[in-house]
Give the backbone structure.
Amino acid sequence: MPPKKKKGKKKGKKGETGELSVKDKYNKTLQEVDSLKHELETRTELARRNNAKANDLKLKVTEWENVVKSEQEEKLDISADMVRQYKTMQSTMALRIHLLETNLAHMQVQLDTTKTKLDETEKAKSDLQKKYDDAVEKMEREMSDMEKKYESILIEAMDAVAGKLEQAQSMWSKSCEMVQLRNIAKLREFGLPNLQL
């Protein structure tokens, strides 16, 4: 009888080794979860930095808006000044019409030149406005694309963490069930009543 008891003790030691193996698996799973958490934190930091870049882009857009507004105001001042000069010339011409008849052709050329400059100014203003609108639209598209990309990255990271946790839970359930079955089998060997999970 004593040899049989020794045999039983050896089997008990094998069971303990099996439990250590499960513990190792658990620790490995915890390490994987920690690794995924670290990766999620890294990606979150990356998203934060990209949001900061997006804010910088918004500030640049605001600066461009201010520059464009300043140039528009300057061009409007130039146009208003040119109109005032034109009106002054008309008043002067009305008072001195008899003295300026010989210079009428020359003044007409100046008037045409002024109108041409005004048209060129309006065209330049229109071109600048179009460039500004295109730049703003492009930046808005890029910011929208960046937001979608980083949202997708965060979702993928969270899905990966959830998948690992679910896999770990399934593995632990199976491991615990196997350990319990082995323990019940050993207890039955010692003549204990039938046990169930």
